[in-house]
Amino acid sequence: MTEKTMTAMPVAHEVARKAGQGAGVSLSYEARFLRRKVLTSDAGEAILVDLPQTTSLDHGDALVLSDGRHLAVIAAPEPLLAVSGDDLPRLAWHIGNRHTPCQIEGRRLLIQRDHVIRDMLRHLGATVEEVVEPFTPEGGAYGHGRTHGHDHSHSHGPEGHTHDHGH
Prior knowledge:
Elements: H1 3-8, E1 11-16, E2 24-27, E3 33-40, E4 46-56, E5 62-65, E6 70-75, E7 77-84, H2 88-97, E8 102-104, E9 109-112, H3 115-123, E10 127-134, E11 151-154, E12 161-164
Parallel strand pairs: 1-4, 2-6
Antiparallel strand pairs: 1-5, 3-4, 5-6, 7-9, 7-10, 8-9, 11-12
């Protein structure tokens, strides 16, 4: 894609929280964690997202475009596991203990498909079924949108260094 092509498309430099209405872009949970990327709206229009920092977008947010429009962020259906059982709080604890994103509902939990977690939950007595639905998990502790991507600063001598990685 040439620089001329990229500048001809609308650019999103900011996010309006909980302001998404109308035309949108459907994104999976992982795709809603971004900083700079060309997206294609549900109507087929190319949009350049160029945010100041990596941002976790939520279903219902809006990308504010350079031409003044708002493009709604929509949680796209994706492969998930629906978890249910007699002791849902205990199952939720085990999921959280593994830092697994989890959507908490009244009678079930939704998590991304993972055969190891699935087997563990079944061993704990859970009913686990594969579904394809939008995924809007709980945000991380202390108001952070994601529970991974935190900084691991520490010192290994006089200079020290940091490790910023996604877990």
